[in-house]
């Protein structure tokens, strides 16, 4: 079904092949390439990092797949991080653990073993995505919320203030209150990763119906994220994000799926 959808139906899915698949319990990551490019893809590796319940149970963690396409090295890391508003530090630590644990399996093992390079530092471009579970916390951006800090301690008031910003389509105010953005600014996680502008409603925690209608139990948040990072020296224009959107019509989960498309310039061959 996925292959058919990639090609727009009509049996054209034969134009695509599965390059690699990795799984961790209910988490799955698959990389597809066009069949015509399959012979250009090499050095394909995968890794798993289980960070849930003592690092044994795979209810949280990360999956990584790396490969070279011609002269360009790529890594894709899918994550499911700790839930709940107050677990921001745990989410940051999980990111660091996944970066470190997957490095030896899909990167240069000798260097990774010495702690010199994590997985994001060993490839021309690394894409990081999944249910990262970072939350909107208006206490981080009280001016945008227009409410005193004491009022925001009450869940109902906080939830209502976020919903008001959603209805006003004040995406920048929501963005200013995002935990991941603040953690990155503080240098606590995912250094030098870039991210597009989320100009659409938060994708969690929604009712299982079309559109963005939120459950009262959780603050509406941008849990579902897509980031990328390029090796220094590859140039800021090597990766261009050409789209970033949610799919409000999907109603099978309390998350709305998010997708992005990119244009990636081929890396120059190194001589020496």
Span from first to last CA?
45 Å
Could you tell me the number of beta strands? 10
Biggest sheet strand order reads 3-4-5-6-8-7
Q: What is the beta-strand fraction?
A: 25-35%
* Largest sheet report: 6 strands, mixed
Order of helices and strands: HEEEHEEHHHEHHHHHEEEE
- Into which percent range does the helicity of residues fall? 10-25%
Please write out the topology.
Layout: H1 2-6, E1 16-24, E2 27-34, E3 41-52, H2 53-56, E4 57-69, E5 72-80, H3 88-101, H4 103-106, H5 109-113, E6 125-131, H6 142-145, H7 149-152, H8 155-167, H9 171-176, H10 179-185, E7 194-195, E8 224-230, E9 239-246, E10 258-264
Parallel strand pairs: 5-6
Antiparallel strand pairs: 1-2, 3-4, 4-5, 6-8, 7-8, 9-10
Task: Describe what you observe in this structure.
The chain has helices at 2-6, 53-56, 88-101, 103-106, 109-113, 142-145, 149-152, 155-167, 171-176, 179-185; strands at residues 16-24, 27-34, 41-52, 57-69, 72-80, 125-131, 194-195, 224-230, 239-246, 258-264. β4 and β5 (72-80) form a beta hairpin. Strands 3-4-5-6-8-7 form a six-stranded mixed β-sheet. A two-stranded antiparallel sheet has the order 1-2. It contains ten helices and ten strands. It is globular, with a radius of gyration of 20 Å. With 272 residues, it is of the alpha+beta class. 34% of the residues are buried. The model has no long low-confidence stretch (mean pLDDT 87).
């Amino acid at each position: 079904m996925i292959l058919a959808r990639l090609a727009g139906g009509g049996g054209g899915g034969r134009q695509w092949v599965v390059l690699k698949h990795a799984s961790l319990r209910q988490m799955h990551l698959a990389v597809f390439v066009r069949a015509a490019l399959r012979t250009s893809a090499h050095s394909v590796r995968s890794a798993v990092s289980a960070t849930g319940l003592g690092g044994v149970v795979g209810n949280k963690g990360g999956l990584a797949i790396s490969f070279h396409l011609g002269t360009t090295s790529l890594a894709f890391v899918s994550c499911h991080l700790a839930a709940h508003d107050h677990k921001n530090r745990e989410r940051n630590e999980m990111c660091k653990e996944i970066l470190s644990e997957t490095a030896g399996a899909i990167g240069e093992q000798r260097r990774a073993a010495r702690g010199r390079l994590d997985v994001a530092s060993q490839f021309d471009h690394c894409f990081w995505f999944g249910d990262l579970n970072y939350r909107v916390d208006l206490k981080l951006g009280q001016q945008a919320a227009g409410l005193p800090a004491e009022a925001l301690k009450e869940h109902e008031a906080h939830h209502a203030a976020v919903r008001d910003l959603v209805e006003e389509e004040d995406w920048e105010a929501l963005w200013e209150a995002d935990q991941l953005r603040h953690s990155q600014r503080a240098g606590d996680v995912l250094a030098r990763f870039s991210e597009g502008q989320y100009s659409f409603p938060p994708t969690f925690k929604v009712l299982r119906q079309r559109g963005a209608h939120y459950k009262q139990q959780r603050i509406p948040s941008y849990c579902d994220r897509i980031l990328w990072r390029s090796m220094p020296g590859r140039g800021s224009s090597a990766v261009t994000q050409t789209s970033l959107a949610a799919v409000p019509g999907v109603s099978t989960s309390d998350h709305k799926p998010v997708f992005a498309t990119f244009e990636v310039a081929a890396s120059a061959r190194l001589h020496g």
